[in-house]
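Case study 2.
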Amino acid sequence: MFIERSQMNPVIALVGRPNVGKSTLFNRLTRTRDALVADLSGLTRDRKYGAGKVGERDYIVIDTGGISGMEEGLDEKMAEQSFQAMEEADIVLFLVDGRAGLMGADQMIANHLRTLEKQTYLVVNKIDGLNPEIATLDFHELGMGEVLSIAATQNRGINILMEHVLDEKVLPEKFHIDPDAEAIEKIKGIKLGIIGRPNVGKSTLVNRLLGEERVVVYDQPGTTMDSIYIPYKRHEKDYVLIDTAGVRRRKNISEASEKFSIVKTLQAIQDSNVCIAVIDARDGIVEQDLTMLSFVMNAGKALVIAINKWDGMDSDQKEFVKKELERRLNFADWADMHFISALHGTGVGHLYDSVDEAYASAHLDMSTSQLTRILEDAVMDHQPPMSGAARTKLRYAHQGGMNPPTIIVHGNRVKSLPDSYKRYLANTFRRVLNISGTPIRFDFKSGENPYDGLKEDRLFNKSKRGERVKQTEDIRKAKRDKVSARKRKVNKKNN
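Prediction:
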């Protein structure tokens, strides 16, 4: 049974002149620091893709280089990247600089956006310290509808912006959640996302996993952005393959086809329980493979790596590829790696063992006593380093979530804990709990000091305390004088 779902994750492109804050907004929307940010024009050249979420709504965002309208040479290529991002996006956020005001390049970009007939929002950035009504006044001239204002560096107005953009009432109809989506959620089984670059054998692997030719290599026109859910059983276990393997027909393939594959990869990652990353053994590891794996890790998804097209390679080639994989994939050493041939079926069956183990590890239920005991043993074997004159103290740990396993550690001075010690803790927990195929996330929390701030209060009230002490002394002296006067009066009467 095929269940075809319309893509519910809109693709949002950030466009505008150079240095208007597109990369800063990209980092805010993706909650990363992937995009370079500096007060320099032309820092962003190629398109950069990321994933974000507002409430229950996921989205994909594209950062682009600036468009000035007077590009030559390299700048012209950068502008082409931006125009291509507009083409492949569902929603366009047109950023302008509220401090610089309306520029000729803004007019040019606005005119181009009108020809695309995309859902576009005019966003005035850098309004911090300005009156928003005055800062946005000139931009109404562009005739782009409602003008929205933000301050990306201050994270001001961004949540309101995205809630407006992703509102069900204003989203294009194809992104509305329909009854079929509920049916998808009710499908039982481990969701397997088959991800990878074009032409690495994803469709072939899907057909091999299913045992029949059920997926074609090229999608039909208009389905580039769709996901196909394929439920099936194997050895009485339920699985759901999320196939995003196809690319567009050859007549439509351009330089953008590989960029579309990134969008589709992000979609598969977001919807999956376990991702099977397919890598071409003959091409080796390329930058796009590393980017894909970083998406998986940032999403916290379980991972199995499949090195495809292993057949037909001689022993020297295989040895070289293994060394390269070991060197370049050391950051994901927790993921199982399989050398397969999707075409002939070699090693494909072993993928299921790793998938089941990764899924079980991602949904592992851990008790507080167990986690605290592991933490105490780890600290006993290797104490945290000194933080100034004191040492970081880790007191107890408990589970904070699943998929990925999240461990919350409580202690003192945890902000000064170095990354090397955090990696030591992660490796210790992974070894003791026998967790494989999934990343582990740690959240370190410091306990509140009940006396924190009292010092400042004491210093603030020092003068008042002096006054109160003086008043007390005056009262005591008055009492002593009164008693003395009474004694003198009594003695005088007796004499």
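The longest strand covers residues 393-401.
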